[in-house]
Design brief:
about 35% strand; about 190 residues; CheW-lke_dom; five-stranded mixed β-sheet; alpha+beta; CheW; CheW-like_dom_sf; CheW-like domain-containing protein; six-stranded mixed β-sheet
Length: about 190
């Protein structure tokens, strides 16, 4: 039978300690990655949103939305979020993209990404939330020139070339003059 004292007498080789350290530490020269939430905007288009600006992701019952009259058509209304009023926007409609949210009478719940930019909080209602993905932020390119004619061009922060994933600029969405946010958070 082997005794514990036999293990303490045999020194561990320095090479194996070095190997263990190299396994536990990140590889040298690895670029820092940034997390993005992928969501579906319409039937064919998905987008990314940096998780830093996301306060919550939730499913919201349509019955919990209080419609507000005489607002921009993309504004669905308000709901309760952590004891405060949360303005809800049909993101696809705000960006000028057709969406199934226009036919809400068939839906009972909606997916919502709650974004917080400075002191402004806004619920972005979308058809579907996918998953969190990691990208190297240094690989983010300026929006492609072929998008300049699209109505959502001002809301695009950039794209990742390898899969042409568009990255939404949450600050541009929240600060959209058509939403008149100065009325939202007063």
């Amino acid at each position: 039978m082997t005794k514990l004292s036999e293990f303490t007498r045999t020194p561990i080789a320095t090479a194996s300690l070095t190997s263990l350290a190299s396994l536990l530490s990140p590889p040298a020269g690895t670029e820092p990655m940034q997390k993005f939430l992928r969501f579906r905007l319409d039937r064919t288009q998905s987008m990314l949103l940096a998780v830093e600006g996301i306060a919550a992701v939730q499913t919201l019952a349509i019955a919990d939305i209080l419609p507000v009259p005489q607002m921009n058509a993309c504004i669905l209304g308000m709901s309760n979020w952590r004891g405060d009023s949360l303005w809800l926007v049909d993101l696809a409609q705000q960006l000028g993209v057709q969406t199934r949210l226009n036919r809400m009478q068939k839906l009972t719940t909606l997916s919502t990404i709650v974004v917080q930019i400075n002191d402004n909080t806004l619920g972005l209602v979308i058809p579907e939330i996918y998953e969190i993905e990691e990208y190297n932020p240094k690989m983010l390119l300026n929006p492609p020139a072929d998008l300049q004619t699209n109505p959502f061009f001002p809301f695009i922060r950039g794209y990742f070339k390898h899969d042409r994933s568009l990255v939404l600029d949450a600050a541009a969405v929240v600060q959209d003059p058509s939403l008149q946010l100065h009325h939202f958070n007063s």
